[in-house]
Amino acid sequence: MAMYVCFTLLVAGLCVLPALLRTLCPYLLQDCAYILNAVRLGLRLERYKRRARFYSILDCFLDAVRKHPLKPFIHFMGETYSYSDVDRESNKVAHALQKVAGLKEGDTVALFIGNEPCFIWMWLGLAKLGCASALLNFNIRSKSLLHCFSCCGANVLILSEELCGAVQEILPALKEKSISVYVLSDACSTDGIKGISQAITQAPDQALCPSLRANVKSHSTSLYIYTSGTTGLPKAAMVTHERVWAASFIQAVSGVTSEDVFYLNLPLYHSAGFLIGFAGCIERGNTLVLRRKFSASQFWDDCRKYNVTVMQYIGETMRYLCNTPKRDNDRDHKVKIAIGNGVRVDVWNEFLKRFGNIYIRELYAATEGNIGFINYTTKVGVVGRVNFLHKKLFPHTLIKFDIEKEEPVRNADGFCVPAAPGEPGLLVGKITIKSPFVGYAGNKQQTEKKRLRDVFVKGDLYFNSGDLLRIDHENFVYFQDRVGDTFRWKGENVATTEVSDILTMVDCIEEANVYGVMVKGHEGRIGMAAVVLKEGKEFDGIDTCRVVANYLPVYARPRFIRIQSSLELTGTFKMKKVKLVEEGFDPALICDPLYFLDLVEKKYVALTQEIYNSVIAGDIKL
Fold first, then answer.
1. Between the CA of residue 469 and those of 67, 247, 254, 398, 435, what are the distances in Å?
2. DSSP 3-state helix, strand, coil percentages of the chain (rounded to 5)?
3. What is residue 312's three-state secondary structure?
4. DSSP 8-state assignment for residue 161
5. Vertex 274, ends 309 and 283: CA angle to 5°?
6. What DSSP line would sit under 492-507, residue for residue?
7. pTM value surpassing 0.85
8. DSSP 3-state assignment of 378?
9. By mean pLDDT, which of 10-19, 228-237, 450-459, 540-549 is the weakest?
């Protein structure tokens, strides 16, 4: 009888256990699945590194060519290129560049090319020669372009024909340095720029000998990818072959398989498009739909045309999709996974409600950083989740940060202070062999600025992410703001992203870029916002005041608003602030309409020169 009772209790306990685990540990299964996947991928990378000859992402591509040569690799503007097509084209590129430019293992070549298939086989061809590639932002010009080219140490520049005008501006400086410049056309009338298309067309498409890249190691530089330049000139992050592998695994941990079709409309010169998108497709062996640039109006039509199952987003792209006119076929697509970063919570919810049950794999990472997170759960608004394995392999923590001084808070012993659970803090990742920080090419000063020393003990070394994050009691990670974006007013910290989200709740405001400006005679920086109005709408000073008063504390309410026709963005849809901060709020210098939050009138009023003078003189209390 006793055994029967024990058996009954055991069975009952086993039946109740799943429900109990779901209640007490609702994310246990997702945690376990993620950890097992991460371990499997990590062991794979270790095997590649331990081989007699390092197995690179290029080798993975060559294996895919042998495995499924006829499988579509790239769809682009109605054309389809198989894995073998791309392989042959990249062979021709490698042979031509070897003969014409004399390229060899260890050389660095700058690519100034837009989103098109030749970008891909150009990079593959260079990789077959053992060359590193610097991926130049095709939107930059003049001083920035010359800076980006120079800091990576490249001796060859290859560009698209439509970008010749941009290169002509810096051609005298390139000639002085004896830089070889090649354009993807048959010929070029500009002295100093040589056409190379004919040489590529006539080159053989036979495979190249692996010995040409025999000295490529896991720690060798594969790429130079530039920071987006929201503050100052871009910095060239050195991306090793090991780092290319690690970033390519993001598709795998997001649940993408070889059967998926991946839609890529982000620039290939950026880490999101190149590493997660393109390199990730090589790692998975799937098909890539490539677009020159993002188009909200054509996005879903493309997805339906090519049976896209995985999309990529960054910055504001999801909001642009939500702002398109609603259609009856909004859910008529096969997209099941979206990978990216920078989506607001309200847009996230709206996107799911409108376009269906898509797994949003929101992530946090930096091109040069040594720590990242990804949201492998269905929880809305988080960029990831901390687990013991992740913490063990990539030691990291959040530390208290002084917004006003823009430096970490240190105790009496000179060490940093960990942020409390739920408190925003500066993310720092310990620099180790497993989680290195390589730094920026040709910029020791900026590299050193990212290294934080004596954090918890004398002599330790951490990577300073420059980002404020928050970890809640369930170990979910939330992005708060960038250090440079967060400002301090009236002794309080103001997160620009939070204020921007509130401003876009105003009926007349389409988008907002929030920043802090200096006011003579005042400590800190006061809030200001550049906004774009919805089509056909006029600025409503009363409603805007009502919304910010209802949702924001007094110190966080923007006192100045600047109306613009469009907001200046980086190539990855990050809002530029530096110029806006410098211009301030003087109506004598700014042509855009300006408004001032009148606390007495309880509305935003036109900022006249008289009001401006009163603010500067201290006659109006801020």
1. 43, 21, 22, 7, 19
2. 35, 25, 40
3. strand
4. G
5. 60
6. EEE-HHHHHHHHTTST
7. no
8. coil
9. 10-19
- How many C-beta atoms lie closer than 10 Å to residue 297's C-beta? 10
Q: What angle do CA 348, 349, 351 make, to 5 degrees?
A: 65
Given a contact cutoff of 8 angstroms between Cβ atoms, the answer to whether 540 and 506 are in contact is yes
CA distance 608 to 42: 61
Does an H or E element contain 29, and which?
Answer: helix 28-50
610 exposed, middle or buried (CB, 10 Å; 0-12, 13-18, 19+)?
exposed
Q: Is residue 377 a contact partner of residue 385, using CB atoms and an 8 Å limit?
A: yes
For residue 162, the 8-state DSSP code is: G
Rounded to the nearest 10 degrees, the angle between the axes of helix 541-551 and helix 496-503 is 130
The sign of the dihedral angle between the CA atoms of 506, 581, 518, 589 is negative
Confidence of residue 446 (pLDDT cuts 50, 70, 90): confident
Q: What's at 69, amino acid-wise?
A: P
Share of the chain above pLDDT 90, in %: 75
In the structure encoding, which two tokens stand for residue 516, read together?
């802090």
Alpha helices in 371-471 (DSSP H): 388-393, 444-449
Q: Which residues contact 575 (CB under 8 A, 6 or more apart)?
A: 230, 513, 567, 568, 569
User: What CATH number is given for 58-72+83-206+217-251 in this structure?
Assistant: 3.40.50.980
**For residue 516, with 0-12 CB atoms within 10 Å meaning exposed, 13-18 middle and 19 or more buried, which class applies?**
buried
**Whose structure tokens read 């901060």?**
581
State both tokens at 371: 């720590």
For residues 180 and 109, what is the distance between their CA atoms, to the nearest angstrom? 10
What phi and psi, each to the nearest 5 degrees, are found at residue 439?
105, -165
Residues counted in the chain: 622
Q: Closest Cα to residue 290, out of 274, 375, 336?
A: 274
What is the DSSP secondary-structure string of 83-132? HHHHHHHHHHHHHHHHHHT---TT-EEEEE--SSHHHHHHHHHHHHTT-E
What's the pLDDT tens digit per position in 267-306? 999 999 999 999 999 999 999 999 999 999 999 999 999 9
**Structural class in CATH, domain 487-617:** alpha beta
Query: CA 472 to CA 423: how far, in whole Å?
Result: 8
Does residue 563 sit in helix, strand or coil?
A: strand
Q: Do residues 240 and 438 touch, judged by C-beta distance below 8 A?
A: yes
Among 505, 518, 510, 594, smallest CA distance to 548 is for: 505
Closest CA to 72 of 272, 261, 343, 263: 261
DSSP states along 178-222:
T-EEEESSS--SSTTEEE-HHHHHHS--PPPPGGGGTT--TTSEE
* Per-residue pLDDT at 17 exceeds 90: no
